[in-house]
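Thread: Newbie trying to understand structure tokens

Hi all, I'm a second-year student working on a class project, and my supervisor (Dr. K.) asked me to get a predicted structure for one chain before our next meeting. I've only ever worked with sequences, so writing a 3D structure as a token string is new to me. If someone could post the tokens and maybe explain what I'm looking at, I'd be very grateful. Here's the chain:
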Amino acid sequence: MKPHPPNKNDAPLERDIAIHIFSASAAMVGVCLTVISIVQTFTRSQLVQTLVDDVLAVNALIFLCACLLSYWALRTRSLKRMHRVESAADVVFLIGLVGTVCACGMLVWAATA
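---
Reply by user tm_fold:
Sure, no problem. This is what the structure looks like when written as tokens:
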């Protein structure tokens, strides 16, 4: 299904989505960094610790990219550009969420092994 082109009525909705992505991705950068320090403290397996740290560090960078993209979407004056940049921020944010779930899975399965 082809997305509809942006119009002036979409601007408040797009800004609202960009604001949510901006705040959530900024918070997720902090979550990733916090979990890295917790994993360093409590994980017994050096292999799992290294893998989870690497995944979470990459996730922090992905969430930072989502945060920057959503900020760009909020600052741009062109409605068409705002729509494209906000869509990119949305995709990048979802990729970061998938990576976070993968890191959580690695921690859970390492704790049971």
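A couple of things are worth pointing out once you decode it. The first helix runs from residue 11 to 42. The radius of gyration is 17 Å. Feel free to ask follow-ups in this thread.
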